Amino acid sequence: MKKSVKIILGIISAAMAVVCVMCILYIVQYMRGNSLNDKLANDIASDMTVAVPKAHTAGPEETAAPDAEPQPDAADAEPKKKFRSINFDALTELNPDIYAWIDMPGSIINYAVVQSEDKDEFYSDHAVDGSYYSGGSIFSQRYNKRDFSDPVTVLYGHNRKNGTMFATLNDFADPAYFEEHRTVYIYMSDAIYEYTVFAAYPHSSEHLLLCHDFTDEDEFNRYFDKLADGVNTNYDREMFPAFGDKVLTLSTCYKQNRMQRYLVQAKLTAQYSLLDAQAE
């Protein structure tokens, strides 16, 4: 009897030890993943001001001397804008799967964007450096090209309880928050894409890109025209896209129903070339 008790206690002790080790490993990966995102946001992404030159066109009565230096026209000057300066060389060295950076001013969303070459869901539970991390990354799937040239590009991120990744997308259900957070920037190595949010709404768990052919004009227009009929939808009707526009969709779990998604959609409204921009 005593031997049986000892065996049982030994099994329980071993099981508890395994559980403790697993808990420690989980905590370590959790803290490491959070630390990596914070480090990248602080070290890889810094603030810069860029002036995007605006071409000066001479008026009908304006004739310049052949050898005269062009004079800037204050009325034509493009206002300087404050952007992030992203060190893509460092990001590529960290992981070649990193191809963009997303920033939503006024929110916690400020992350590298990744896409796996062979596993669409890989970064749902891996950090941007490829290590295991339950919090995952902001990622796209191979249904989208990496240059944001598709009619609709979808970026995924977890709705984390600590408010990181894409958790704050659910805040767009508040009309005031919707109005205050209308701008999304996508940074590439040679350009910055500026998107304006036009809709936020709960959606079914269907795969948006597999269930809808947004390369078809009729289907594209039909899908977005129906947004105004949705329940619990915040939207700006005047900003709805038409076929030919580029749409960025940010997707996360809906906090009211984990079986659904919550989508925030934005339309490309400006593009800045970093090859021509002047950083200060």
Describe the overall structure.
The chain is α+β, with helices and mostly antiparallel strands. It is globular. Residues 53-70 have low confidence and may be disordered. The protein contains five helices and twelve strands. Helix content is 25%, strand content 28%. β3 and β4 (110-114) form a beta hairpin. Strands 3, 4, 5, 6, 7, 8, 9, 10 and 11 form a nine-stranded mixed beta sheet that branches. The protein has a three-stranded antiparallel beta sheet with strand order 2-1-12.
What would a concise description of this structure say?
With 280 residues, the protein is α+β, with helices and mostly antiparallel strands. It is 25% helix and 28% strand. The protein has five helices and twelve strands.
- The residue-averaged pLDDT reads 82
- Specify the structural class: alpha+beta
The biggest sheet, with number of strands, parallel, antiparallel or mixed sense and barrel status, is: 9 strands, mixed
Residues in β-strands, percent:
25-35%
